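Narrative summary of target 7.
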Amino acid sequence: MLKRIQALFHTETEETQEKTFDDVKVAAAALLVCAATMDEVYGKTEQATIRRVLKSFFELSDEETEELMTLAESEEQRAVGLHRWAQTLKDAYEVEERTQLIEQLWEVVYADGELHDYEASLLRRIVGLIYVPDREAGLARKRVLARLGLDA
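Modeled conformation, tokenized:
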């Protein structure tokens, strides 16, 4: 009986030590993966865009970027909804950082050169859930379109 109890505590300690990324990074990365998979095509271009965004935004090494990407993919597959991630991000970021995240999400959904209806719907939901003003979200989208040379 005592060994079972010790094993429970030992397992919790190992899990805590293995936790490399905070909830904010995982939430942001999972939303990026969710946006990329919304049109049921998760291609190399979208994956490369997510890697670039994560590496730049969180100032990660290549190895850390890959670890976070793998964790985000796993989280996204197990997720029931967006609310937990959205709440984490809303609580952790100021409106400017949340707007920057929306811009990064637009980059991911436009990585393949087109916007699918499901992707647009997802972005509208996320904008509302993390309380980014519509005007700021629209400007973020326009910046991405201009940067990528795409038409609205």
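Helices lie at 2-18, 23-37, 44-58, 62-78, 83-92, 95-109, 117-129, 134-148.
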